[in-house]
Design brief:
The chain is α/β, with parallel strands linked by helices. The chain has helices at residues 12-27, 31-45, 50-65, 67-71, 104-118, 120-125, 144-155, 164-171, 177-188, 199-204, 211-227, 246-251, 263-274, 285-292, 298-315, 319-330, 336-349, 354-361, 365-373; strands spanning 90-92, 133-138, 159-163, 192-196, 233-238, 254-258. The N and C termini lie far apart (61 Å). The chain binds adenosine-5'-triphosphate and magnesium ion.
Length: 387
């Protein structure tokens, strides 16, 4: 095998060996091996032949970064399961993608991932591959699917979704061939491939009748993760990272945990969901509401705010009232101390008078006044019992 790590200038013999290897992989149509060889060669040539290394890196970047070069190929329709006639892959529009509200650290990691993809030519010229695979793990409703769509939008690539939970049953008994066909399609077309509900594979491993088949599927995925082409991004999303095969977990270039929203994120999600109505609310009101919604995920907060705004628009009910009703509904048996916490939050963070707060929480002014003067009220942390 060619030793391109040598400090001496690359000899004609070495270049000849490399050329033969490249031609062999090229003729065999093995694009991933070809890319890997070119990448290693770029790294090794960097010191002695910087111009050649740079030209090689640019060539790699042309095909890895410029999706349109490859988009011309692989324009065939996505594969469908032969029996069920189901489309195994869904191509989703991303023009309308919205940026999820993320904790600062998470946002930073995603921005870095996007930057490394955007600057892939710089990396390739040095012989390093940009990140190709990303594992998003986190609790349900924290915005993982939304984030995958946003990433596709930012990269200017189509989003191709393979929902493993629903598709896996059609794979079983078919030696993972359907999975391979789907993945082949995604590899041939520059895209962001989202493997949603990724843990479905791990979960099903408990079932003894399916062990052999699932092992094959896991092996297919391991191979895919190692060989994923430069021009596409594979994003896997899971609620149960602890169930994943450790070998799979290790193979991802980047792993990001999408967290439950903190106070600042909850406020932003509420603010965004209220749209133009946000400015009509008393100052600090959404801060108070956000505090009442600790432990909620982004999806729950967004859904709550949307339904509140709909009620306000359709029924003409006061928006603050609608919000408090919705919060009270989440905490169905509102105890005295919870009324007190809510009243106190409203008092501390809004301009509402005691009378207005009493109206909002549905109690008498004297009851609210009493609660406000009481000391040591506990924080609301009870979760909605009938989500
Ligand atoms: N961080 C967030 N910022 C803004 N909106 C959010 C966020 N998280 C969730 N949402 C809202 O909730 C909806 C559903 O979120 P999404 O499906 O992306 O969550 P998920 O993490 O993929 O959930 P699951 O694990 O159940 O698949 C989003 O379309 C969005 O409206
Ligand atoms: Mg999801």
């Amino acid at each position: 095998m060619l030793n391109l790590n040598s400090k001496t200038a690359v000899s004609t013999k070495q270049l000849g060996t490399l050329l033969l290897k490249l031609v062999e992989e090229g003729l065999a149509g093995n694009k991933q091996r070809l890319e890997l060889l070119a990448l290693n060669a770029t790294r090794s040539l960097r010191a002695d032949s910087p111009d050649l290394a740079s030209a090689l890196g640019s060539l790699l970047a042309k095909f890895a970064g410029n999706a349109s070069v490859l988009r011309l190929r692989g324009a065939s329709p996505p594969p469908a399961d032969a029996d069920a006639g189901l489309a195994l892959l869904r191509i989703q529009p991303v023009d309308d993608a919205k940026e999820p509200v993320l904790a600062h650290g998470v946002q930073h990691r995603i921005e870095r991932f996007l930057m490394e993809r955007a600057e892939c030519e710089k990396l390739l010229k040095e012989g390093f591959a940009p990140p190709r695979t990303l594992l998003l793990k986190g609790m349900p409703g924290t915005g993982k699917t939304m984030l995958a769509k946003w990433i596709a939008h930012k990269l200017g690539l189509p989003l191709v979704v393979l929902d493993l939970a629903t598709a896996i049953s059609s794979f079983l008994g078919k030696t993972g061939s359907n999975l391979r066909r789907s993945l082949d399609y995604a590899r041939a077309t520059p895209c962001v491939l989202l493997l949603d509900e990724f843990d479905a594979i791990a979960k099903r491993r408990d079932d003894a009748t399916e062990v052999g088949e699932l092992k094959r599927i896991v092996n297919v995925l391991l191979k895919e993760l190692e060989d994923w082409p430069l021009h596409s991004v594979l994003v896997a999303a899971t609620n149960h990272p602890e169930l994943l095969d450790p070998a799979i977990h290790r193979r991802f270039d980047v792993v990001v945990e999408v967290l439950l929203p903190g106070q600042a994120e909850r406020e932003s999600i509420l603010d965004r969901a209220c749209g133009r109505f946000a400015v009509t609310l008393p100052h600090g009101f959404l801060v108070a509401i956000a505090r009442c919604l600790d432990e909620c995920n982004g999806s729950e907060i967004d859904t709550l705010a949307q339904s509140v705004v709909r009620r306000h628009v359709i029924e003409g009910e006061d928006l603050t009232r609608c919000f408090v009703d919705a919060v009270v509904f989440r905490l169905p048996r509102l105890r005295k101390e919870e009324v007190a916490v809510l009243s106190r939050m409203l008092k501390e963070t809004t301009d509402l008078t005691v009378r207005e707060i009493a109206q909002v929480v549905g109690k008498s002014s004297s009851a609210v006044q009493y609660q406000l003067t009481k000391k040591n009220t506990k924080r609301i942390s009870r979760r909605k019992s009938h989500a």
